[in-house]
Amino acid sequence: MKKGLFITFEGADGCGKTTQMQLLAEYLKQQGKDVVLTREPGGKGLGEKVREILLNYNAPVSDRCESFLFLADRAQNIDIIVNPAVSDGKIVLCDRHIDSTIAYQGYGRGLDIERIKMLNNIATNFQKPDLTFVFDIDVETSMKRVGKEKDRMESAGIDFHNRVRQGYLELAKQEPQRIKVLDATKSIEDIHKNVVEIFENINSY
Ligand code: TYD
Protein backbone atom coordinates (compact mmCIF):
# COMPACT_ATOMS: atom_id res chain seq x y z
CA MET A 1 0.00 0.00 0.00
CA LYS A 2 1.15 3.55 -0.73
CA LYS A 3 2.61 5.33 2.28
CA GLY A 4 0.26 7.95 3.76
CA LEU A 5 0.99 11.55 4.63
CA PHE A 6 1.92 13.37 7.81
CA ILE A 7 0.73 16.99 7.98
CA THR A 8 1.21 19.35 10.93
CA PHE A 9 -0.62 22.53 11.97
CA GLU A 10 1.37 25.24 13.74
CA GLY A 11 1.04 28.79 14.97
CA ALA A 12 0.33 30.99 17.96
CA ASP A 13 -2.30 30.17 20.55
CA GLY A 14 -5.63 31.35 19.14
CA CYS A 15 -4.47 31.35 15.49
CA GLY A 16 -7.31 29.04 14.41
CA LYS A 17 -5.16 26.04 13.42
CA THR A 18 -7.39 23.53 15.20
CA THR A 19 -10.44 24.72 13.25
CA GLN A 20 -8.46 24.52 10.00
CA MET A 21 -7.26 21.02 10.83
CA GLN A 22 -10.85 19.90 11.37
CA LEU A 23 -11.97 21.51 8.10
CA LEU A 24 -9.20 19.80 6.15
CA ALA A 25 -10.13 16.50 7.83
CA GLU A 26 -13.75 16.94 6.64
CA TYR A 27 -12.59 17.77 3.12
CA LEU A 28 -10.38 14.67 3.00
CA LYS A 29 -13.03 12.38 4.45
CA GLN A 30 -15.49 13.57 1.79
CA GLN A 31 -12.97 12.36 -0.76
CA GLY A 32 -12.98 8.95 0.87
CA LYS A 33 -9.56 9.35 2.46
CA ASP A 34 -8.67 7.65 5.72
CA VAL A 35 -7.79 10.44 8.17
CA VAL A 36 -6.31 10.28 11.67
CA LEU A 37 -6.26 13.32 13.98
CA THR A 38 -3.78 13.78 16.78
CA ARG A 39 -2.22 16.58 18.78
CA GLU A 40 0.82 17.54 20.82
CA PRO A 41 0.87 17.66 23.70
CA GLY A 42 -1.88 15.09 23.92
CA GLY A 43 -2.63 12.40 21.42
CA LYS A 44 -4.26 9.83 23.68
CA GLY A 45 -3.60 7.92 26.90
CA LEU A 46 -0.14 8.73 28.24
CA GLY A 47 0.06 11.84 26.03
CA GLU A 48 -3.02 13.31 27.72
CA LYS A 49 -1.37 12.90 31.12
CA VAL A 50 1.77 14.72 29.95
CA ARG A 51 -0.47 17.46 28.52
CA GLU A 52 -2.18 17.91 31.88
CA ILE A 53 1.20 18.51 33.59
CA LEU A 54 2.45 20.84 30.87
CA LEU A 55 -0.56 23.11 30.78
CA ASN A 56 -1.77 23.12 34.38
CA TYR A 57 1.15 22.38 36.70
CA ASN A 58 1.03 25.07 39.30
CA ALA A 59 4.63 25.53 40.48
CA PRO A 60 7.88 26.51 38.75
CA VAL A 61 8.87 24.28 35.80
CA SER A 62 12.44 24.53 34.48
CA ASP A 63 12.72 25.40 30.78
CA ARG A 64 14.68 22.23 30.09
CA CYS A 65 12.20 20.07 31.99
CA GLU A 66 9.39 21.66 29.98
CA SER A 67 11.23 20.83 26.74
CA PHE A 68 11.80 17.21 27.74
CA LEU A 69 8.15 16.75 28.62
CA PHE A 70 7.07 18.03 25.19
CA LEU A 71 9.69 15.78 23.59
CA ALA A 72 8.62 12.70 25.57
CA ASP A 73 5.05 13.29 24.47
CA ARG A 74 6.29 13.67 20.86
CA ALA A 75 8.13 10.34 20.86
CA GLN A 76 4.98 8.62 22.15
CA ASN A 77 2.78 10.33 19.54
CA ILE A 78 5.13 9.42 16.67
CA ASP A 79 5.63 5.79 17.71
CA ILE A 80 2.11 4.93 18.83
CA ILE A 81 -0.16 7.07 16.65
CA VAL A 82 1.56 8.75 13.67
CA ASN A 83 3.90 6.13 12.20
CA PRO A 84 1.56 3.13 12.36
CA ALA A 85 -1.17 5.16 10.61
CA VAL A 86 1.16 6.57 7.91
CA SER A 87 2.52 3.08 7.18
CA ASP A 88 -1.10 2.00 6.75
CA GLY A 89 -1.58 4.60 4.00
CA LYS A 90 -3.57 7.03 6.17
CA ILE A 91 -3.34 10.81 6.26
CA VAL A 92 -2.36 11.97 9.75
CA LEU A 93 -3.15 15.55 10.76
CA CYS A 94 -1.37 16.70 13.89
CA ASP A 95 -2.08 19.83 15.93
CA ARG A 96 1.46 21.10 16.79
CA HIS A 97 4.72 19.15 16.42
CA ILE A 98 8.50 19.78 16.12
CA ASP A 99 8.20 23.42 15.09
CA SER A 100 6.29 24.28 18.28
CA THR A 101 9.28 23.27 20.40
CA ILE A 102 11.67 25.31 18.26
CA ALA A 103 9.35 28.32 18.30
CA TYR A 104 8.24 28.18 21.98
CA GLN A 105 11.19 26.65 23.87
CA GLY A 106 13.86 27.86 21.41
CA TYR A 107 12.83 31.32 20.23
CA GLY A 108 10.34 31.92 23.07
CA ARG A 109 12.19 30.67 26.15
CA GLY A 110 15.63 31.28 24.63
CA LEU A 111 17.03 27.73 24.68
CA ASP A 112 19.67 26.88 22.09
CA ILE A 113 17.90 26.33 18.74
CA GLU A 114 20.40 23.81 17.37
CA ARG A 115 20.12 21.72 20.54
CA ILE A 116 16.33 21.73 20.34
CA LYS A 117 16.57 20.59 16.72
CA MET A 118 18.89 17.77 17.81
CA LEU A 119 16.48 16.72 20.55
CA ASN A 120 13.57 16.87 18.10
CA ASN A 121 15.52 14.49 15.86
CA ILE A 122 15.92 12.07 18.74
CA ALA A 123 12.20 12.27 19.58
CA THR A 124 11.12 11.67 15.96
CA ASN A 125 13.89 9.37 14.71
CA PHE A 126 14.93 12.13 12.28
CA GLN A 127 11.56 12.23 10.55
CA LYS A 128 9.87 15.42 9.46
CA PRO A 129 6.28 16.08 8.42
CA ASP A 130 5.53 15.97 4.68
CA LEU A 131 3.82 19.35 5.00
CA THR A 132 3.43 21.98 7.73
CA PHE A 133 1.00 24.87 7.85
CA VAL A 134 1.91 27.91 9.96
CA PHE A 135 -1.07 30.16 10.69
CA ASP A 136 0.49 33.57 11.16
CA ILE A 137 -1.22 36.15 13.33
CA ASP A 138 -0.18 39.26 15.28
CA VAL A 139 0.13 38.71 19.01
CA GLU A 140 -2.51 41.28 19.97
CA THR A 141 -5.22 39.58 17.89
CA SER A 142 -4.24 36.10 19.01
CA MET A 143 -4.31 37.07 22.71
CA LYS A 144 -7.73 38.68 22.27
CA ARG A 145 -8.97 35.40 20.78
CA VAL A 146 -7.53 33.39 23.67
CA GLY A 147 -9.40 35.61 26.15
CA LYS A 148 -8.86 35.97 29.89
CA GLU A 149 -8.70 32.28 30.80
CA LYS A 150 -5.08 31.58 29.92
CA ASP A 151 -3.16 28.34 30.56
CA ARG A 152 0.49 28.25 31.74
CA MET A 153 1.92 28.72 28.21
CA GLU A 154 -0.58 31.36 27.14
CA SER A 155 0.31 33.45 30.22
CA ALA A 156 3.97 33.81 29.16
CA GLY A 157 3.66 37.47 28.04
CA ILE A 158 3.63 39.61 24.87
CA ASP A 159 7.41 39.61 24.27
CA PHE A 160 7.52 35.83 24.58
CA HIS A 161 4.72 35.44 22.04
CA ASN A 162 6.33 37.93 19.65
CA ARG A 163 9.51 35.84 19.71
CA VAL A 164 7.45 32.70 19.07
CA ARG A 165 5.87 34.33 16.03
CA GLN A 166 9.24 35.45 14.64
CA GLY A 167 10.55 31.95 15.27
CA TYR A 168 7.86 30.38 13.09
CA LEU A 169 8.53 32.89 10.29
CA GLU A 170 12.26 32.18 10.49
CA LEU A 171 11.65 28.42 10.29
CA ALA A 172 9.45 28.91 7.23
CA LYS A 173 12.30 30.80 5.54
CA GLN A 174 14.69 27.96 6.33
CA GLU A 175 12.37 25.23 5.00
CA PRO A 176 10.09 26.79 2.38
CA GLN A 177 9.34 23.42 0.74
CA ARG A 178 7.83 21.94 3.89
CA ILE A 179 6.52 24.96 5.80
CA LYS A 180 3.78 27.12 4.29
CA VAL A 181 2.74 30.34 6.02
CA LEU A 182 -0.89 31.44 5.84
CA ASP A 183 -2.45 34.73 6.94
CA ALA A 184 -4.57 33.73 9.95
CA THR A 185 -6.41 37.04 10.11
CA LYS A 186 -8.41 36.13 6.95
CA SER A 187 -11.87 34.53 7.18
CA ILE A 188 -12.12 30.86 8.12
CA GLU A 189 -13.44 30.04 4.62
CA ASP A 190 -10.62 31.87 2.82
CA ILE A 191 -7.96 30.23 4.95
CA HIS A 192 -9.54 26.83 4.33
CA LYS A 193 -9.40 27.47 0.55
CA ASN A 194 -5.68 28.29 0.85
CA VAL A 195 -5.08 25.14 2.89
CA VAL A 196 -6.80 22.96 0.30
CA GLU A 197 -4.88 24.60 -2.58
CA ILE A 198 -1.56 23.96 -0.88
CA PHE A 199 -2.54 20.40 0.03
CA GLU A 200 -3.61 19.60 -3.55
CA ASN A 201 -0.34 21.01 -4.86
CA ILE A 202 1.88 18.78 -2.76
CA ASN A 203 -0.44 15.81 -3.18
CA SER A 204 -0.18 15.87 -6.95
CA TYR A 205 3.62 15.62 -6.98
P1 TYD B 1 -2.98 23.92 23.49
O1 TYD B 1 -4.11 24.06 24.46
O2 TYD B 1 -2.92 22.72 22.63
O3 TYD B 1 -2.90 25.23 22.67
P2 TYD B 1 -3.33 25.45 21.20
O4 TYD B 1 -4.81 25.12 21.18
O5 TYD B 1 -3.00 26.88 20.95
O6 TYD B 1 -2.48 24.50 20.40
O7 TYD B 1 -1.64 24.07 24.32
C1 TYD B 1 -0.44 23.75 23.82
C2 TYD B 1 0.53 24.75 24.39
O8 TYD B 1 1.81 24.15 24.50
C3 TYD B 1 0.68 25.95 23.48
O9 TYD B 1 0.74 27.11 24.27
C4 TYD B 1 2.02 25.73 22.82
C5 TYD B 1 2.77 24.92 23.81
N1 TYD B 1 3.80 24.02 23.23
C6 TYD B 1 5.13 24.30 23.47
O10 TYD B 1 5.47 25.27 24.14
N2 TYD B 1 6.09 23.45 22.94
C7 TYD B 1 5.75 22.34 22.23
O11 TYD B 1 6.65 21.57 21.78
C8 TYD B 1 4.36 22.06 22.00
C9 TYD B 1 3.95 20.85 21.21
C10 TYD B 1 3.42 22.95 22.52
Note down, in words, how this protein is organized.
This protein has 205 residues and is of the alpha/beta class. The chain has a single domain (5-202), classed as P-loop containing nucleotide triphosphate hydrolases (Rossmann fold, 3-Layer(aba) Sandwich). It contains 8 helices and 5 strands; from the N terminus they run βαβααβααβααβα. The chain has helices at residues 17-30, 46-56, 63-87, 98-108, 113-124, 139-146, 158-174, 188-203, and strands at 5-11, 35-39, 91-95, 131-136, 179-183. A 5-stranded parallel β-sheet has the order 2-3-1-4-5, sandwiched between helices. Helix 1 (17-30) crosses helix 8 (188-203). It is globular, with a radius of gyration of 16 Å. The relative contact order is 0.20. The mean pLDDT is 93. The structure holds thymidine-5'-diphosphate. Residues 13, 18, 40-41, 55, 70, 95-96, 100-101, 104-105, 153-154 line the site of thymidine-5'-diphosphate (TYD).
